[in-house]
Amino acid sequence: MNNNNLNSQELKEKLQHGSNSFPFAKYRWQGGFDNAVNLHWHPELEIIKCIKGNINLTINLQPISIKEPCYIIIPGNILHSLFLPKDSVEDAIVFNINMLSFINYDTIQAKVFYNLASGNMPNLPIIYTNNKLFNLIDPLFNFICNFQIQQDFDELIIKIKLLEIIYLLYKHEVFAEVNENIKINSSNQDKLKVILDYINQHYSGPISLTDLASKINVSEQYFCRFFKKSLNTSFIEYLNNFRLNKITKELITTNKTIIDIAFDHGFENISYFYKLFKKKYNQSPKEFRLKHQTT
Questions:
Q1: Model pTM?
Q2: How far is Cα 200 from Cα 13, in angstroms, rounded to an integer?
Q3: Residues ≥6 apart with Cβ < 8 Å to 164
Q4: Pick the CATH number of 186-292 from 3.40.50.2300, 3.40.50.300, 1.10.10.60, 3.40.50.620
Q5: CATH topology of domain 6-176
Q6: Are 44 and 27 in contact (CB under 8 A)?
Q7: Nearest 10 degrees: CA dihedral of 202, 205, 211, 215?
Q8: What phi and psi values does residue 47 have, to the nearest 5 degrees?
Q9: How does pLDDT run across 117-138, given as a tens digit for each residue?
């Protein structure tokens, strides 16, 4: 299985899932520390399987908690974040629904594919084992996660299995079920996407409230209230956690010095960085690296 960690996914992701010709990727989270996947969105459909533990999500700014075992389907272009406890295990497949489109237009594409791609779904499918659909989807999902693509023609079997999953979801009217009533405020969603995209592109340098407020044409005071109300955290807290999440990946996957990593991710005050890191992870960056580094 592709062992890319989900903490590599960020808001309005620059990460490409798969290739242009085959926009599909799979991920597993099985870490030894609590991990937060920052609020982000992508045009691809995401199917997540909670294998072990509880996973806390924010979908369209509303909190959801799921527990093992279950599936959750997140349509494209929906703001979402995840908190993955250190003892949790999660698999995910991410793919552009258009890779399954047919050349000839049909009603399925109109009814299902468009909604899955656009996020035009007020209710989010969450499938537990008491739903007979779980046992129908599970072998298909597991096959996809475990299958290794070696030749171009191997991509076809992945497409077939993905279409089978979509078929089952549609047949069992999952998209019409009310699992979680999530109301979407498109105006606020658009504002947040602008703000968070700017943070994602500029987090490694200074970011001022004036810059961010101007992006959505509001005052600094309004911006602070809007951000706090939307994300239940202050801008400074969000930015610090965003930077720390980036830093943990570099600590594990590179041999760069801790100070260089901190500077590269926007911390100019090293003492402040160490204080925040210790508070969040209950250990120093050096201890974190020694415990989790795999290279």
A1: 0.74
A2: 9
A3: 140
A4: 1.10.10.60
A5: Jelly Rolls (2.60.120)
A6: no
A7: 0
A8: -115, 120
A9: 776 665 678 999 999 999 999 9
